[in-house]
Fold:
Amino acid sequence: MKHLLGIAGMSRESLDELLVLTDSFAEINARAIPKVPALRGKTVATLFFEDSTRTRLSFETAAKRLSADTLSFSVSSSSVKKGESLRDTALTLEAMRIDAVVVRHGSSGAPWQLARWLDCSVLNAGDGWHEHPTQALLDAFTLRQRFGSLDGLRVAIVGDIKHSRVARSNVWAFTALGAEVVLVAPRTLLPPSLEGWPVQMSEDLDAVLPTVDVVYLLRMQLERQNEALVPTLREYTARFGLTVDRAARLADRAVVLHPGPMNRGVEIAPEVADLERCLVLDQVANGVSVRMAVLFKLLAGADGSTASEELDRAGNG
Structure:
């Protein structure tokens, strides 16, 4: 495995291997000094053409906890502002002898293009409306922590699915790991076609909520919308927001996830966001462990069967 570009097409075995490997890094992150020299001498560059808080900081923290060096590329202060192409920017970074580049880009397919141009590993941190593979992995790991397995879970993904790369990656990851997924949204916020998506679809959140184990909320991505897709945000909240009353109708064991940033008062009531069943901070913490696992997998070349031994040696080195 040289790159992590997307979840679509990954086998359950490959996903399970990364989640098992993540267990090792979750244990490391629980230590007083959460650092191992596993990637000492390696360099990881972050190349973000879109704003990010959680993903960027998570990848940089993951690299540093593995003792890798990091380069942080800021588009606002780079030669991109002078017209430099994505290819020339990437080749400039590679000339600095980096081992991996983490890229977020507004154009779908940009990470695949970089993987063709560069010899280093490429990790997709979000490309357009297309995929966000490490978000799907951390979400799957969070559910695995809570339920032991995704087998048989019923997951409702609610909101702006049309513009959500998170929704796409999660559909592939959750269903590959044995969950059943139902998309809940007005038709204006669904992709033009769901052909090939292994999902159910509903426009009735109230009917779906009592039947699910997981409610995965998405924010309205107004920055990607070129037209009014719902009459008003207030009407959207009335039909599709997880209000206090709706949360009270969830099964006792049901949990709430959100990739962030949350728009409190729109897709989720502030009181619901603060409930114990809302696992947003668990997702953030698990994001570091997942990204440590992915970087280790790509740059240390370890498979799941040998990772524990390598980490033990690294921890004792």
